[in-house]
Amino acid sequence: MHSFLKNNVFSISFGTSLSKLAGCLRQVFIAAAFGVGITYDAFNYAYIIPGFLLIIIGGINGPLHNAVVAVLTPLNKKNGGIILTQVSIKLSIILFGLAILIYFNSSLLIELLAPNLSSEAKTIATYQLRILTPCIPLSGFIGLSFGALNSRRKFFLSSISPAITSLTIIFFILFSWTFNQENTTKNLFTSSGLLAFATLTGTLIQFVVQIWEINKIGLLRLQSTFQSFNFQSFNFQTFKYEQRRILKLIIPASISSGLSQINVFIDMFFASSFQGAASGLAYGNFLIQAPLGILSNSLILPLLPKFSKLRSEKDKRGLQKKLISGVEYCFLAAIFLTGFFITFNNQIVQLVFQRGSFDYSATLKVKNILIAYAVGIPFYLYRDLLVRTYYSIEKTNFPFKSSFAGIIFNIFFDWFLIGAPIKNFGNLSPYNFGVVGIILSSVIVNLIVCILLSFNLRNEDIHLPNLDLLKKISLMSLAAFIDSTLCFTILQTTNNFNSNLAEFLLLIFGTLTFFVIYFLLTKFLKVNKFKVSKKEI
User: Fold this and answer.
1) Which is more confident, 35 or 532?
2) DSSP string, 192-241
3) Is residue 416 a contact partner of residue 429, using CB atoms and an 8 Å limit?
4) Per-residue pLDDT reduced to its tens digit, 452-473
5) CA 87, CA 83: separation in Å to the nearest integer?
6) CA nearest 377: which of 416, 339, 408?
7) What are the respective helix, strand and coil percentages of the chain, to the nearest 5?
8) With the C-alpha atoms ordered 248, 139, 129, 43, is the resulting torsion angle positive or negative?
Protein backbone atom coordinates (compact mmCIF):
# COMPACT_ATOMS: atom_id res chain seq x y z
CA MET A 1 0.00 0.00 0.00
CA HIS A 2 2.82 2.38 0.91
CA SER A 3 4.64 1.56 -2.35
CA PHE A 4 1.40 2.01 -4.36
CA LEU A 5 0.73 5.40 -2.80
CA LYS A 6 4.35 6.49 -3.20
CA ASN A 7 4.42 5.56 -6.90
CA ASN A 8 1.11 7.31 -7.62
CA VAL A 9 2.12 10.48 -5.78
CA PHE A 10 5.38 10.54 -7.75
CA SER A 11 3.55 10.03 -11.08
CA ILE A 12 1.04 12.80 -10.34
CA SER A 13 3.65 15.21 -8.97
CA PHE A 14 6.11 14.60 -11.80
CA GLY A 15 3.47 14.84 -14.52
CA THR A 16 1.90 17.96 -13.00
CA SER A 17 5.32 19.61 -12.63
CA LEU A 18 6.12 18.98 -16.30
CA SER A 19 2.71 20.37 -17.30
CA LYS A 20 3.28 23.51 -15.20
CA LEU A 21 6.75 23.96 -16.72
CA ALA A 22 5.31 23.61 -20.22
CA GLY A 23 2.59 26.13 -19.31
CA CYS A 24 5.20 28.58 -18.08
CA LEU A 25 7.23 28.25 -21.30
CA ARG A 26 4.02 28.70 -23.32
CA GLN A 27 3.28 32.03 -21.63
CA VAL A 28 6.88 33.19 -22.17
CA PHE A 29 6.61 32.44 -25.91
CA ILE A 30 3.16 34.05 -26.19
CA ALA A 31 4.48 37.18 -24.46
CA ALA A 32 7.47 37.38 -26.83
CA ALA A 33 5.28 36.85 -29.89
CA PHE A 34 2.21 38.94 -29.06
CA GLY A 35 3.06 41.18 -26.09
CA VAL A 36 0.13 43.15 -24.64
CA GLY A 37 -1.68 43.67 -27.91
CA ILE A 38 -4.82 43.24 -29.93
CA THR A 39 -4.23 39.64 -31.07
CA TYR A 40 -3.77 38.17 -27.61
CA ASP A 41 -6.62 40.36 -26.33
CA ALA A 42 -8.88 38.89 -29.01
CA PHE A 43 -7.75 35.34 -28.24
CA ASN A 44 -8.57 35.74 -24.54
CA TYR A 45 -12.14 36.74 -25.44
CA ALA A 46 -12.45 33.98 -28.05
CA TYR A 47 -11.22 31.40 -25.53
CA ILE A 48 -13.68 32.35 -22.76
CA ILE A 49 -16.46 29.91 -23.75
CA PRO A 50 -14.29 26.97 -25.01
CA GLY A 51 -11.94 27.50 -22.06
CA PHE A 52 -14.86 27.50 -19.63
CA LEU A 53 -16.03 24.12 -20.96
CA LEU A 54 -12.48 22.71 -21.05
CA ILE A 55 -12.03 23.66 -17.37
CA ILE A 56 -15.48 22.67 -16.07
CA ILE A 57 -16.05 19.58 -18.23
CA GLY A 58 -12.62 18.57 -19.51
CA GLY A 59 -10.38 19.58 -16.61
CA ILE A 60 -8.56 17.35 -14.12
CA ASN A 61 -10.52 17.30 -10.83
CA GLY A 62 -13.45 18.84 -12.68
CA PRO A 63 -17.01 17.57 -12.10
CA LEU A 64 -16.93 15.12 -15.04
CA HIS A 65 -13.55 13.71 -14.00
CA ASN A 66 -14.64 13.16 -10.37
CA ALA A 67 -18.01 11.64 -11.38
CA VAL A 68 -16.40 9.11 -13.74
CA VAL A 69 -13.82 8.08 -11.11
CA ALA A 70 -16.60 7.52 -8.56
CA VAL A 71 -18.73 5.41 -10.94
CA LEU A 72 -16.11 3.40 -12.88
CA THR A 73 -13.69 2.47 -10.09
CA PRO A 74 -15.77 -0.41 -8.60
CA LEU A 75 -16.86 -1.79 -12.02
CA ASN A 76 -15.06 -4.45 -14.06
CA LYS A 77 -13.33 -3.51 -17.30
CA LYS A 78 -16.13 -4.65 -19.64
CA ASN A 79 -19.05 -2.95 -17.89
CA GLY A 80 -16.96 0.16 -17.18
CA GLY A 81 -16.00 0.36 -20.85
CA ILE A 82 -19.62 0.06 -22.05
CA ILE A 83 -20.82 2.79 -19.65
CA LEU A 84 -17.88 5.08 -20.55
CA THR A 85 -18.50 4.65 -24.28
CA GLN A 86 -22.25 5.24 -24.00
CA VAL A 87 -21.81 8.38 -21.88
CA SER A 88 -19.07 9.60 -24.27
CA ILE A 89 -21.36 9.25 -27.30
CA LYS A 90 -24.31 11.02 -25.64
CA LEU A 91 -22.22 13.82 -24.17
CA SER A 92 -20.36 14.36 -27.46
CA ILE A 93 -23.66 14.68 -29.37
CA ILE A 94 -24.90 17.33 -26.89
CA LEU A 95 -21.61 19.26 -26.99
CA PHE A 96 -21.41 18.96 -30.78
CA GLY A 97 -24.83 20.62 -31.05
CA LEU A 98 -23.66 23.34 -28.66
CA ALA A 99 -20.51 23.87 -30.77
CA ILE A 100 -22.58 24.33 -33.95
CA LEU A 101 -24.79 26.85 -32.14
CA ILE A 102 -21.73 28.79 -30.94
CA TYR A 103 -20.07 28.67 -34.38
CA PHE A 104 -23.00 30.32 -36.15
CA ASN A 105 -23.52 32.88 -33.38
CA SER A 106 -19.86 33.64 -32.64
CA SER A 107 -20.10 37.29 -33.69
CA LEU A 108 -23.09 37.87 -31.40
CA LEU A 109 -21.36 36.12 -28.48
CA ILE A 110 -18.21 38.24 -28.83
CA GLU A 111 -20.39 41.35 -28.96
CA LEU A 112 -22.09 40.30 -25.71
CA LEU A 113 -18.82 39.34 -23.98
CA ALA A 114 -16.87 42.41 -25.12
CA PRO A 115 -19.21 45.26 -26.10
CA ASN A 116 -16.50 47.93 -25.99
CA LEU A 117 -13.77 46.03 -27.82
CA SER A 118 -12.45 47.65 -31.01
CA SER A 119 -14.01 46.48 -34.27
CA GLU A 120 -10.69 44.96 -35.41
CA ALA A 121 -10.34 43.00 -32.15
CA LYS A 122 -13.95 41.79 -32.42
CA THR A 123 -13.31 40.55 -35.95
CA ILE A 124 -10.20 38.63 -34.88
CA ALA A 125 -11.94 37.25 -31.76
CA THR A 126 -14.93 36.07 -33.84
CA TYR A 127 -12.62 34.30 -36.31
CA GLN A 128 -10.68 32.67 -33.48
CA LEU A 129 -13.85 31.54 -31.67
CA ARG A 130 -15.02 29.77 -34.83
CA ILE A 131 -11.68 27.97 -35.04
CA LEU A 132 -11.92 26.95 -31.37
CA THR A 133 -15.49 25.55 -31.47
CA PRO A 134 -14.36 21.93 -32.17
CA CYS A 135 -12.64 22.05 -28.76
CA ILE A 136 -16.11 22.00 -27.17
CA PRO A 137 -17.13 18.41 -28.10
CA LEU A 138 -13.53 17.27 -27.60
CA SER A 139 -13.61 18.62 -24.01
CA GLY A 140 -16.32 16.10 -23.08
CA PHE A 141 -14.25 13.05 -24.00
CA ILE A 142 -11.09 14.54 -22.50
CA GLY A 143 -12.85 14.97 -19.14
CA LEU A 144 -14.31 11.45 -19.33
CA SER A 145 -10.95 9.92 -20.24
CA PHE A 146 -9.20 11.69 -17.35
CA GLY A 147 -11.64 10.03 -14.97
CA ALA A 148 -11.46 6.67 -16.75
CA LEU A 149 -7.64 6.58 -16.68
CA ASN A 150 -7.54 7.51 -12.99
CA SER A 151 -10.18 4.87 -12.18
CA ARG A 152 -7.69 2.32 -13.58
CA ARG A 153 -4.76 3.92 -11.70
CA LYS A 154 -3.22 5.50 -14.80
CA PHE A 155 -2.19 8.82 -13.31
CA PHE A 156 0.86 9.96 -15.28
CA LEU A 157 -0.82 10.48 -18.66
CA SER A 158 -3.70 12.49 -17.17
CA SER A 159 -1.19 14.66 -15.28
CA ILE A 160 1.07 15.27 -18.30
CA SER A 161 -1.76 15.57 -20.85
CA PRO A 162 -2.34 19.38 -20.47
CA ALA A 163 1.29 19.93 -21.51
CA ILE A 164 0.43 18.71 -25.02
CA THR A 165 -1.50 21.88 -25.85
CA SER A 166 1.21 24.09 -24.32
CA LEU A 167 3.95 22.40 -26.36
CA THR A 168 1.83 22.61 -29.52
CA ILE A 169 1.42 26.39 -29.08
CA ILE A 170 5.19 26.74 -28.56
CA PHE A 171 5.82 24.71 -31.73
CA PHE A 172 3.42 26.87 -33.78
CA ILE A 173 5.11 30.06 -32.60
CA LEU A 174 8.61 28.69 -33.31
CA PHE A 175 7.44 27.46 -36.72
CA SER A 176 6.06 30.89 -37.63
CA TRP A 177 9.28 32.58 -36.48
CA THR A 178 11.39 30.19 -38.54
CA PHE A 179 9.45 30.47 -41.82
CA ASN A 180 8.17 34.05 -41.53
CA GLN A 181 11.17 36.09 -40.50
CA GLU A 182 10.32 39.03 -42.74
CA ASN A 183 7.19 41.23 -42.87
CA THR A 184 4.88 38.24 -43.20
CA THR A 185 5.42 37.40 -39.52
CA LYS A 186 3.34 40.36 -38.42
CA ASN A 187 0.46 39.36 -40.71
CA LEU A 188 0.59 35.79 -39.46
CA PHE A 189 0.40 36.82 -35.80
CA THR A 190 -2.34 39.44 -36.19
CA SER A 191 -4.84 37.89 -38.59
CA SER A 192 -4.30 34.16 -39.13
CA GLY A 193 -5.56 32.93 -35.78
CA LEU A 194 -2.29 31.20 -34.96
CA LEU A 195 -3.09 30.81 -31.26
CA ALA A 196 -6.55 29.43 -32.01
CA PHE A 197 -5.22 26.91 -34.57
CA ALA A 198 -2.46 25.88 -32.16
CA THR A 199 -4.90 25.41 -29.28
CA LEU A 200 -7.27 23.36 -31.44
CA THR A 201 -4.40 21.22 -32.74
CA GLY A 202 -3.09 20.63 -29.22
CA THR A 203 -6.57 19.68 -27.97
CA LEU A 204 -7.01 17.30 -30.91
CA ILE A 205 -3.63 15.63 -30.23
CA GLN A 206 -4.59 15.34 -26.56
CA PHE A 207 -7.88 13.70 -27.61
CA VAL A 208 -6.12 11.20 -29.91
CA VAL A 209 -3.50 10.27 -27.29
CA GLN A 210 -6.16 9.69 -24.64
CA ILE A 211 -8.51 7.72 -26.90
CA TRP A 212 -5.54 5.51 -27.85
CA GLU A 213 -4.72 4.94 -24.15
CA ILE A 214 -8.40 4.27 -23.28
CA ASN A 215 -8.55 1.67 -26.07
CA LYS A 216 -5.23 0.20 -24.93
CA ILE A 217 -6.52 -0.50 -21.40
CA GLY A 218 -9.79 -1.94 -22.76
CA LEU A 219 -12.25 0.81 -21.85
CA LEU A 220 -13.26 1.77 -25.42
CA ARG A 221 -16.02 -0.70 -26.35
CA LEU A 222 -18.03 0.51 -29.33
CA GLN A 223 -19.00 -3.04 -30.42
CA SER A 224 -20.04 -4.09 -26.90
CA THR A 225 -21.98 -0.85 -26.52
CA PHE A 226 -24.17 -1.54 -29.56
CA GLN A 227 -24.55 -5.18 -28.51
CA SER A 228 -25.75 -4.07 -25.08
CA PHE A 229 -28.75 -2.38 -26.72
CA ASN A 230 -29.67 -5.49 -28.72
CA PHE A 231 -28.64 -8.59 -26.78
CA GLN A 232 -27.93 -7.61 -23.19
CA SER A 233 -31.30 -6.24 -22.12
CA PHE A 234 -30.92 -7.77 -18.67
CA ASN A 235 -28.01 -5.39 -18.03
CA PHE A 236 -29.68 -2.37 -19.61
CA GLN A 237 -31.19 -1.02 -16.39
CA THR A 238 -27.85 -1.31 -14.60
CA PHE A 239 -26.10 0.65 -17.34
CA LYS A 240 -28.84 3.31 -17.33
CA TYR A 241 -28.54 3.65 -13.55
CA GLU A 242 -24.75 4.18 -13.70
CA GLN A 243 -25.14 6.75 -16.50
CA ARG A 244 -27.72 8.61 -14.42
CA ARG A 245 -25.29 8.55 -11.48
CA ILE A 246 -22.63 10.27 -13.59
CA LEU A 247 -25.08 12.96 -14.73
CA LYS A 248 -26.43 13.39 -11.20
CA LEU A 249 -22.90 14.00 -9.91
CA ILE A 250 -21.93 16.29 -12.81
CA ILE A 251 -24.83 18.78 -12.84
CA PRO A 252 -24.69 20.27 -9.29
CA ALA A 253 -20.88 20.25 -9.25
CA SER A 254 -20.77 21.99 -12.64
CA ILE A 255 -23.17 24.69 -11.43
CA SER A 256 -21.08 25.26 -8.30
CA SER A 257 -17.80 25.34 -10.26
CA GLY A 258 -19.39 27.51 -12.92
CA LEU A 259 -20.25 30.27 -10.44
CA SER A 260 -16.58 31.18 -10.03
CA GLN A 261 -16.14 31.21 -13.82
CA ILE A 262 -19.09 33.61 -14.19
CA ASN A 263 -16.98 36.23 -12.40
CA VAL A 264 -14.39 35.79 -15.17
CA PHE A 265 -17.10 36.60 -17.74
CA ILE A 266 -18.11 39.69 -15.75
CA ASP A 267 -14.53 40.95 -15.41
CA MET A 268 -13.80 40.42 -19.11
CA PHE A 269 -17.05 42.23 -19.99
CA PHE A 270 -15.90 45.33 -18.09
CA ALA A 271 -12.27 44.93 -19.27
CA SER A 272 -13.33 45.37 -22.92
CA SER A 273 -13.22 49.15 -22.36
CA PHE A 274 -9.42 49.06 -22.12
CA GLN A 275 -7.02 48.04 -24.87
CA GLY A 276 -4.57 45.39 -23.73
CA ALA A 277 -6.56 44.69 -20.55
CA ALA A 278 -7.35 41.05 -21.37
CA SER A 279 -3.68 40.34 -22.18
CA GLY A 280 -2.43 42.10 -19.05
CA LEU A 281 -4.91 40.26 -16.82
CA ALA A 282 -3.88 36.93 -18.34
CA TYR A 283 -0.15 37.56 -17.73
CA GLY A 284 -0.66 38.90 -14.20
CA ASN A 285 -2.99 36.08 -13.21
CA PHE A 286 -0.52 33.52 -14.56
CA LEU A 287 2.29 34.87 -12.35
CA ILE A 288 0.06 34.78 -9.26
CA GLN A 289 -1.64 31.42 -9.74
CA ALA A 290 1.47 29.20 -9.70
CA PRO A 291 2.69 30.06 -6.16
CA LEU A 292 -0.89 30.52 -4.97
CA GLY A 293 -1.77 27.01 -6.14
CA ILE A 294 1.24 25.58 -4.33
CA LEU A 295 0.23 27.40 -1.12
CA SER A 296 -3.36 26.24 -1.39
CA ASN A 297 -2.39 22.61 -1.95
CA SER A 298 0.33 22.49 0.71
CA LEU A 299 -1.49 24.41 3.47
CA ILE A 300 -5.18 23.67 2.95
CA LEU A 301 -5.46 20.18 1.43
CA PRO A 302 -3.76 18.41 4.39
CA LEU A 303 -6.27 20.05 6.77
CA LEU A 304 -9.41 18.76 5.04
CA PRO A 305 -9.14 15.05 6.03
CA LYS A 306 -8.48 16.18 9.61
CA PHE A 307 -11.58 18.40 9.55
CA SER A 308 -13.70 15.53 8.23
CA LYS A 309 -12.36 13.13 10.86
CA LEU A 310 -12.95 15.60 13.71
CA ARG A 311 -16.47 16.23 12.44
CA SER A 312 -17.24 12.49 12.34
CA GLU A 313 -15.93 12.25 15.92
CA LYS A 314 -18.12 15.29 16.84
CA ASP A 315 -15.03 17.02 18.25
CA LYS A 316 -16.05 20.65 17.65
CA ARG A 317 -13.31 22.05 19.92
CA GLY A 318 -10.61 20.09 18.11
CA LEU A 319 -11.95 21.18 14.70
CA GLN A 320 -12.09 24.81 15.86
CA LYS A 321 -8.51 24.64 17.12
CA LYS A 322 -7.25 23.14 13.85
CA LEU A 323 -9.12 25.76 11.82
CA ILE A 324 -7.68 28.66 13.86
CA SER A 325 -4.18 27.25 13.37
CA GLY A 326 -4.87 26.85 9.63
CA VAL A 327 -6.08 30.46 9.37
CA GLU A 328 -2.90 31.74 11.05
CA TYR A 329 -0.60 29.74 8.78
CA CYS A 330 -2.58 30.77 5.65
CA PHE A 331 -2.28 34.47 6.47
CA LEU A 332 1.38 34.11 7.47
CA ALA A 333 2.22 32.58 4.06
CA ALA A 334 -0.20 34.73 2.02
CA ILE A 335 1.03 38.06 3.47
CA PHE A 336 4.61 36.97 2.77
CA LEU A 337 3.64 36.30 -0.85
CA THR A 338 1.84 39.66 -1.10
CA GLY A 339 4.90 41.53 0.18
CA PHE A 340 7.17 39.57 -2.14
CA PHE A 341 5.20 40.38 -5.31
CA ILE A 342 4.81 44.05 -4.37
CA THR A 343 8.56 44.37 -3.70
CA PHE A 344 9.90 42.47 -6.70
CA ASN A 345 7.08 43.05 -9.23
CA ASN A 346 9.32 44.82 -11.76
CA GLN A 347 12.10 42.22 -11.63
CA ILE A 348 9.61 39.30 -11.93
CA VAL A 349 7.77 40.69 -14.97
CA GLN A 350 10.99 41.74 -16.73
CA LEU A 351 12.70 38.41 -16.14
CA VAL A 352 9.75 36.23 -17.17
CA PHE A 353 8.18 38.21 -20.02
CA GLN A 354 10.20 41.21 -21.27
CA ARG A 355 11.54 40.11 -24.66
CA GLY A 356 10.37 40.26 -28.27
CA SER A 357 7.01 42.04 -28.60
CA PHE A 358 6.71 42.36 -24.83
CA ASP A 359 8.42 45.73 -24.42
CA TYR A 360 8.94 48.00 -21.39
CA SER A 361 5.51 49.64 -21.77
CA ALA A 362 3.94 46.16 -21.52
CA THR A 363 6.02 45.53 -18.38
CA LEU A 364 4.63 48.72 -16.79
CA LYS A 365 1.05 47.60 -17.45
CA VAL A 366 1.52 44.06 -16.18
CA LYS A 367 3.49 45.00 -13.06
CA ASN A 368 0.66 47.31 -11.91
CA ILE A 369 -1.80 44.48 -12.50
CA LEU A 370 0.51 42.12 -10.58
CA ILE A 371 0.58 44.47 -7.57
CA ALA A 372 -3.24 44.61 -7.53
CA TYR A 373 -3.45 40.80 -7.71
CA ALA A 374 -0.89 40.53 -4.89
CA VAL A 375 -3.03 42.67 -2.55
CA GLY A 376 -5.85 40.15 -2.89
CA ILE A 377 -3.81 37.00 -2.19
CA PRO A 378 -4.65 36.76 1.59
CA PHE A 379 -8.40 37.09 0.99
CA TYR A 380 -8.34 34.63 -1.91
CA LEU A 381 -6.51 32.01 0.17
CA TYR A 382 -8.65 32.61 3.27
CA ARG A 383 -11.83 32.25 1.22
CA ASP A 384 -10.48 29.00 -0.24
CA LEU A 385 -9.80 27.67 3.27
CA LEU A 386 -13.26 28.64 4.57
CA VAL A 387 -15.13 27.19 1.58
CA ARG A 388 -13.24 23.91 1.82
CA THR A 389 -13.92 23.85 5.57
CA TYR A 390 -17.66 24.07 4.92
CA TYR A 391 -17.43 21.25 2.38
CA SER A 392 -15.39 19.06 4.75
CA ILE A 393 -18.11 19.37 7.42
CA GLU A 394 -20.74 18.78 4.68
CA LYS A 395 -22.37 22.20 4.93
CA THR A 396 -22.46 23.27 1.29
CA ASN A 397 -25.55 25.48 1.21
CA PHE A 398 -24.07 28.70 2.61
CA PRO A 399 -20.87 28.68 0.45
CA PHE A 400 -23.13 28.28 -2.61
CA LYS A 401 -25.25 31.26 -1.52
CA SER A 402 -22.15 33.34 -0.76
CA SER A 403 -20.69 32.53 -4.21
CA PHE A 404 -23.91 33.68 -5.84
CA ALA A 405 -23.87 36.87 -3.72
CA GLY A 406 -20.25 37.36 -4.79
CA ILE A 407 -21.36 37.57 -8.43
CA ILE A 408 -23.80 40.39 -7.60
CA PHE A 409 -21.13 42.21 -5.55
CA ASN A 410 -18.62 41.79 -8.40
CA ILE A 411 -20.96 43.43 -10.93
CA PHE A 412 -21.56 46.35 -8.55
CA PHE A 413 -17.90 46.99 -7.68
CA ASP A 414 -16.70 46.58 -11.29
CA TRP A 415 -19.31 49.14 -12.27
CA PHE A 416 -18.43 51.40 -9.34
CA LEU A 417 -14.64 51.33 -9.82
CA ILE A 418 -14.37 51.55 -13.63
CA GLY A 419 -17.82 52.38 -14.99
CA ALA A 420 -20.01 50.44 -17.41
CA PRO A 421 -18.66 49.55 -20.89
CA ILE A 422 -22.09 50.40 -22.32
CA LYS A 423 -22.51 54.18 -22.52
CA ASN A 424 -26.23 54.29 -21.74
CA PHE A 425 -25.61 52.75 -18.31
CA GLY A 426 -23.19 55.48 -17.20
CA ASN A 427 -20.96 55.37 -14.11
CA LEU A 428 -21.74 54.85 -10.45
CA SER A 429 -18.83 57.01 -9.27
CA PRO A 430 -16.64 59.82 -10.66
CA TYR A 431 -13.52 57.61 -10.33
CA ASN A 432 -12.12 55.23 -12.92
CA PHE A 433 -9.35 52.91 -11.76
CA GLY A 434 -8.94 51.27 -15.16
CA VAL A 435 -7.81 47.65 -15.42
CA VAL A 436 -6.58 47.69 -11.82
CA GLY A 437 -10.15 48.50 -10.73
CA ILE A 438 -11.32 45.10 -12.07
CA ILE A 439 -8.85 43.32 -9.77
CA LEU A 440 -9.61 45.59 -6.80
CA SER A 441 -13.29 44.71 -7.28
CA SER A 442 -12.43 41.01 -6.89
CA VAL A 443 -10.33 41.80 -3.80
CA ILE A 444 -13.25 43.64 -2.16
CA VAL A 445 -15.70 40.86 -3.09
CA ASN A 446 -13.41 38.17 -1.63
CA LEU A 447 -13.06 40.22 1.57
CA ILE A 448 -16.85 40.53 1.93
CA VAL A 449 -17.41 36.82 1.24
CA CYS A 450 -14.67 35.94 3.78
CA ILE A 451 -16.45 38.01 6.44
CA LEU A 452 -19.78 36.34 5.66
CA LEU A 453 -18.30 32.84 5.72
CA SER A 454 -16.31 33.55 8.88
CA PHE A 455 -19.23 34.88 10.93
CA ASN A 456 -21.63 32.20 9.68
CA LEU A 457 -19.37 29.50 11.18
CA ARG A 458 -20.97 30.40 14.51
CA ASN A 459 -24.18 28.82 13.23
CA GLU A 460 -22.19 25.59 12.91
CA ASP A 461 -20.96 26.02 16.51
CA ILE A 462 -17.44 26.95 15.33
CA HIS A 463 -16.24 30.20 16.88
CA LEU A 464 -13.18 32.01 15.52
CA PRO A 465 -11.43 34.57 17.76
CA ASN A 466 -11.81 37.30 15.13
CA LEU A 467 -10.27 40.16 17.16
CA ASP A 468 -7.23 38.09 18.13
CA LEU A 469 -6.79 36.93 14.54
CA LEU A 470 -7.12 40.53 13.29
CA LYS A 471 -4.38 41.62 15.70
CA LYS A 472 -2.03 38.86 14.48
CA ILE A 473 -2.79 39.65 10.83
CA SER A 474 -1.99 43.32 11.48
CA LEU A 475 1.38 42.38 13.00
CA MET A 476 2.14 40.07 10.05
CA SER A 477 1.29 42.96 7.70
CA LEU A 478 3.58 45.27 9.67
CA ALA A 479 6.42 42.74 9.34
CA ALA A 480 5.82 42.48 5.58
CA PHE A 481 5.76 46.30 5.25
CA ILE A 482 9.10 46.72 7.10
CA ASP A 483 10.60 43.85 5.12
CA SER A 484 9.37 45.26 1.81
CA THR A 485 10.71 48.74 2.62
CA LEU A 486 14.18 47.40 3.48
CA CYS A 487 14.41 45.16 0.41
CA PHE A 488 13.07 47.86 -1.92
CA THR A 489 15.74 50.25 -0.62
CA ILE A 490 18.43 47.65 -1.34
CA LEU A 491 17.01 47.13 -4.86
CA GLN A 492 17.19 50.84 -5.61
CA THR A 493 20.96 50.79 -5.04
CA THR A 494 21.63 47.62 -7.06
CA ASN A 495 19.15 47.90 -9.94
CA ASN A 496 21.67 48.71 -12.67
CA PHE A 497 22.12 45.25 -14.18
CA ASN A 498 21.53 44.75 -17.89
CA SER A 499 21.83 40.96 -18.25
CA ASN A 500 19.11 38.42 -17.51
CA LEU A 501 21.54 36.29 -15.51
CA ALA A 502 22.38 39.19 -13.21
CA GLU A 503 18.68 40.01 -12.81
CA PHE A 504 17.96 36.36 -12.01
CA LEU A 505 20.72 36.20 -9.39
CA LEU A 506 19.50 39.47 -7.89
CA LEU A 507 15.96 38.08 -7.67
CA ILE A 508 17.19 34.88 -5.99
CA PHE A 509 19.26 36.84 -3.48
CA GLY A 510 16.38 39.27 -2.88
CA THR A 511 13.92 36.41 -2.32
CA LEU A 512 16.17 34.77 0.27
CA THR A 513 16.76 38.10 2.01
CA PHE A 514 13.05 38.92 2.03
CA PHE A 515 12.20 35.48 3.46
CA VAL A 516 14.82 35.63 6.25
CA ILE A 517 13.81 39.15 7.34
CA TYR A 518 10.10 38.27 7.29
CA PHE A 519 10.70 35.05 9.24
CA LEU A 520 12.73 36.83 11.92
CA LEU A 521 10.32 39.77 12.24
CA THR A 522 7.24 37.54 12.58
CA LYS A 523 9.12 35.46 15.18
CA PHE A 524 10.00 38.63 17.06
CA LEU A 525 6.36 39.80 16.95
CA LYS A 526 5.24 36.31 18.12
CA VAL A 527 2.92 35.66 15.19
CA ASN A 528 4.97 32.85 13.63
CA LYS A 529 4.50 29.37 15.11
CA PHE A 530 6.51 27.69 12.40
CA LYS A 531 9.43 25.73 13.87
CA VAL A 532 12.59 24.62 12.11
CA SER A 533 14.87 22.07 13.77
CA LYS A 534 18.63 21.92 13.32
CA LYS A 535 18.22 18.54 11.62
CA GLU A 536 15.85 20.06 8.99
CA ILE A 537 18.29 22.94 8.37
Assistant:
1) 35
2) S-HHHHHHHHHHHHHHHHHHHHHHHTT---HHHHHHHHHT-HHHHHHHHH
3) yes
4) 999 988 888 888 888 899 999 9
5) 6
6) 339
7) 80, 0, 20
8) positive
